[in-house]
Amino acid sequence: MTTMLLAETMNTARPRPLAGYFALGRLLEHLAPLTDLLLRLAVFRIFFWSGLAKLDDWSSTLLLFENEYNVPLLPHALAAALAASAELGASLLVLIGLLTRLAALPLLGIALVIQFVLGAADPAYNQLQHYLWMVLLLTLIARGPGAWSLDAWLERRSTPA
């Protein structure tokens, strides 16, 4: 017993140079709900305003999809309608944190098409911001919407006490 007490004393007396750093990390983890909300707000801002711009001048949107975007496999009018619907609907779901992982998937698809389909055809679409969008969306898909979301609220309500 004395040997055990001596060993514990020696372990606690050892300097821990990174203890403050790790303590700060634990303290900053309390900001996670806020950062998750800001992440969702950023994704909403990117895609929702793009969807509104498409609706604002639908005839120009149709022309853009017909002449410039050239989305493969889909008629241009259907591609435009799907893009606008996904940008508006899915971004709203992301903002409120409802079905967030599922809602982020079509937005990720849009970012992938912009970067790798349109970007392959026209260097003007090959931009760093599209990779940043993909990182934001993959973070939402992998981590979920965070504690301040309808997903988290629904999960708390459905989990037995």
Automatic annotation (TrEMBL):
Regions crossing the membrane: 37-53, 73-95, 102-121, 133-154
Any Pfam family hit: DoxX
UniProt cross-references to InterPro entries, sorted A to Z: DoxX (IPR032808), DoxX-like_oxidoreductase (IPR051907)
Keyword terms: Cell membrane, Membrane, Transmembrane, Transmembrane helix
Topology term for the membrane: Multi-pass membrane protein
Subcellular location: Cell membrane
Keyword presence, Cell membrane: yes
Primary localization class, coarse: membrane
Presence of the UniProt keyword Glycosyltransferase in the record: no
Family from the record: Belongs to the DoxX family.
PANTHER family per record: INNER MEMBRANE PROTEIN YPHA-RELATED, OXIDOREDUCTASE CATD-RELATED
Protein name: DoxX family protein
